[in-house]
Amino acid sequence: MKAFKTLDDMGDISGKAVLVREDLNVPMQNGIVSDDTRLRAAMPTVNELSDRGAKVLILAHFGRPKGQPSAELSLQQIAEPLSGVLGRPVRYIDWEGDAQAVASLRPGDIALLENTRFFGGEEKNDPAVVDRFAALGDLYVNDAFSAAHRAHASTEGLAHKLPSFAGRSMEKELDALQAALGAPVKPVAAVVGGAKVSTKLDVLNNLVTKVDHLIIGGGMANTFLAARGVDVGKSLCEHDLADTAEKIMDRADEAGCTIHLPYDVVVAKEFAANPASLRTCNVHEVAADEMILDVGPAAVEALADALKTCRTLVWNGPLGAFEIAPFDAATVALAKTAAALTKEGSLVSVAGGGDTVAALNHAGAAADFSFVSTAGGAFLEWMEGKALPGVAALMA
Ligand code: ADP
Ligand code: MG
């Protein structure tokens, strides 16, 4: 039994008006959708509801209009691209005369309502806006995990007003996250990388109490190394967080979590592709004018061996400055190991984060991970162990 209801629990919805919250906040370049991942994520739910004879009313935000309607942030421009992805007509409905327009829909019709944030009360979860939306539908489906860390009228308020269900993409995401940190098969490993410790303090503090192996890479590893007395030269390092890093290491010790820091590293004097100053050395041999830009090959091999003993992996943040070669090597190698172990069936692997997704795609490993979340902020808050209001409301 799941802790939330899904489309399987909706019963007969033929002729019912179903409000579906999707994330259609797609990037645009010169009026064209430059990445349609989010439109494709909406398809399973929208098309299933339409096939089952519901009148599908899609609610979504677009940009940050802050209650100020504008043509630039109108969802009208997304109706056609969405229709192309769904392979069915999508009718655009603006916030004037919407009740009449909705009343004229037939079973199976799909409509895209205007930007929810054209109402100032959307982001304030204003009960009047919740009522305004609720009046249009009989049932509510939340399919937008990536917006679930916000308690807005269309992401949280509606769930208390109408019978509410998780859409297929939301269901998939929640199932994957549950398998990764909710009730994971042990031993569990986490990889946390990226630029700075300061942006991921809550993530680290939560993970040390939940995982057996915490692999720290990226710029943030330098802060931990420095806290242990290692001279990291010119590396990106938050020296003022030495105490914080030490506390995290103490907490890990108490919780029986093994922290893995690199013992060899790839360094250079400048951040450029294949610089003349490139070399690999022991962490204790970094010169004053060098920067640590990636985890070294010996450490990566040890990390791969540690992963082989684990059954679950959760990954956020690249191990090195992967945008420029060869500082992508550690991230690519460990991602390939995780992908192979997942393919063999010995590892459940869940990853998320903007740069992490880019790095896993770059490694050609994303498709073999059990689940890759594109949710950004919501994924990080979940890794911090926080309850997401949009998800909590579905479980209430
Ligand atoms: P995500 O978006 O997946 O949460 P982050 O934004 O936290 O990841 O981190 C990604 C950034 O960290 C990348 O731009 C990468 O270049 C940087 N980074 C990784 N390792 C290092 C390092 N050793 N020195 C400087 N920057 C690094
Ligand atoms: Mg990032």
CATH topology of the largest domain: Rossmann fold
Spans with pLDDT under 50 lasting ≥5 residues? Answer: none
The level 1 CATH classification of the largest domain is Alpha Beta
What Rg is obtained from the alpha carbons, in whole angstroms?
Answer: 23 Å
Give the CATH H-level superfamily of the largest domain.
Answer: Phosphoglycerate kinase, N-terminal domain
Helix content: 25-40%
Bound molecules: adenosine-5'-diphosphate, magnesium ion
How many strand segments? 17
Question: Spatial order of the strands in the main sheet?
Answer: 5-6-4-1-7-8
**What oligomeric state do the depicted chains represent?**
single chain
Question: What labels describe this entry?
Answer:
Rossmann fold, 2 domains, 6-stranded parallel beta sheet, 396 residues, alpha/beta, binds adenosine-5'-diphosphate, binds magnesium ion
